[in-house]
Structure formats: structure tokens, C-alpha cells
Specification:
Layout lengths: L5 H8 L1 H43 L6 H55 L1 H28 L22
Helix pairs in contact: 3-4
């Protein structure tokens, strides 16, 4: 107790603390032994011991070697199924990677052939048109989301819909 702080040493050496600790220990022991004799023995241990005695004495209970063989077969089958799962996942992912690479490099080649055929200036103009179309489409979609209405806004007579002053295209 030399390693404990001074206030804690005085509490632990106090007669009241020592008395309460011994009293609590004795009362706890008494209550646990009473619980064991009134609940655990008659309702848990005795029925369990009778069940095991009748089950182990009959011939329907499998022996230990059968249970071990069954557990071993289960373990080996799970290991084999794990290897099969790994192989299938690898095979599927190989094909997915292959298809993604073919699509990517195919689009690079098609884009290169397009630029070669129409020229750089025309390719940039077409790219600008496609970019403008996509940005307009996204802006229209964003406006629909914000206002929660038809394309072009509210769609009413005062809005930007077909009946209003704005154009809908």
C-alpha cells in the first residue's frame, strides 16, 4: 500500500471501511449460497444432469468420433467453397476490367480517328457544341429540381413556360 496516495491509504485502513467490506462479503456469500440452493440446483443442474444421463445412456447419441468427422467435413467443404468463391470473383472482375479497358481505349481510338478525319478546328467546334448542349441540359434539369415544375420553370402564364414571355427551348 506504499504506492497509493496518502488520502486513499487512510480510507483503506479506516475501521469503518474494513467492517463494511467484511460485512458485504459475508452477506454476498450468504445470498449467493441461498440462490444456489433455491434456484440453480433444483431448476438448472438437476434437470440438466438427468437429461445428460438419459441421453448419454441411449444408443441414439452419436459418439465423439462421428461428431469430429462431421465437423472436419464441414470445415473442408467451407474451405473449398471459399476457394470457389474467390475464383468466381476473380474471373468476373477480370472480365469487368477487360471490358472497361476495351471501352476506354476504343473510345480514345474512335476520338482520334474522328479528329484525324474532320480536322482539329472542326473537332473543337463540335466539342464546344456538345459541351454547350450538356451544360444547357444540366441547367434545365437543375432549374426543374429547384422549382419542382415543368421544363423552363413554373409552366404557368406568368412563368417561362410555353405560355409566358420566355422561350422553352
Amino acid at each position: 500500500m506504499d504506492h497509493l496516495p496518502e488520502p486513499l491509504q487512510t480510507i483503506l485502513t479506516n475501521a469503518t471501511y474494513t467492517y463494511l467490506r467484511s460485512t458485504a462479503h459475508s452477506q454476498l456469500t450468504t445470498h449467493l449460497s441461498t440462490f444456489r440452493t433455491t434456484v440453480v440446483d433444483p431448476y438448472i443442474l438437476t434437470p440438466l444432469s438427468h437429461l445428460l444421463a438419459t441421453t448419454l445412456g441411449s444408443s441414439t447419441m452419436p459418439d465423439l468420433m462421428s461428431a469430429l468427422v462431421l465437423g472436419g467435413v464441414l470445415l473442408v467443404s467451407l474451405v473449398i467453397l471459399d476457394y470457389i468463391r474467390r475464383f468466381v470473383v476473380w474471373w468476373v472482375m477480370w472480365w469487368v476490367r477487360f471490358i472497361v479497358r476495351v471501352v476506354f481505349w476504343g473510345s480514345v481510338v474512335v476520338l482520334g480517328v474522328y479528329v484525324w478525319n474532320v480536322g482539329g478546328e472542326q473537332a473543337f467546334k463540335d466539342a464546344g457544341r456538345v459541351w454547350g448542349f450538356l451544360m444547357g441540359f444540366l441547367q434545365e434539369g437543375w432549374a426543374m429540381i429547384e422549382q419542382g415544375g415543368a421544363p423552363g420553370g413554373g409552366g404557368g402564364a406568368g412563368g417561362k413556360g410555353m405560355g409566358g414571355s420566355g422561350q422553352w427551348w
